[in-house]
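I have a small job for you when you get a moment. Would you make up a two-line entry for one protein for me to read? No commentary is needed, just the two lines. Write everything out right here, beneath this request.
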Amino acid sequence: IEDHGSTNGTYVQGQRVQRAEIGPGTGVRLGNATDGPRLDLTAAAGQAPVQQQQQQQQQPQRHAQPGAAWPGQQAPAQHQPPVHHGRHQAPQNQ
């Protein structure tokens, strides 16, 4: 894990860190060593931590394209001009 100069810090095993190796069972807190949000890390079922690291390194990095939605969401609809069917006739005065 790496802290990119955050104001409140990143804490591993109660110590503020700039960069640290973490894995299953490592205590990580964000913002405060005692009561900041805690990250719970677990290994995937049936995989050792080394196997997980190798698998993650083999997966290509995915970068969002401009205008792309988050996974599971649709991109916003594009504005479409109104469609008129048939001829429009002005009201007739009698």
About this structure: Residues 1-42 form one domain. The mean pLDDT is 74. Residues 30 and 36 are 5 Å apart (CA to CA). The chain is about 10% helix and 10% strand.
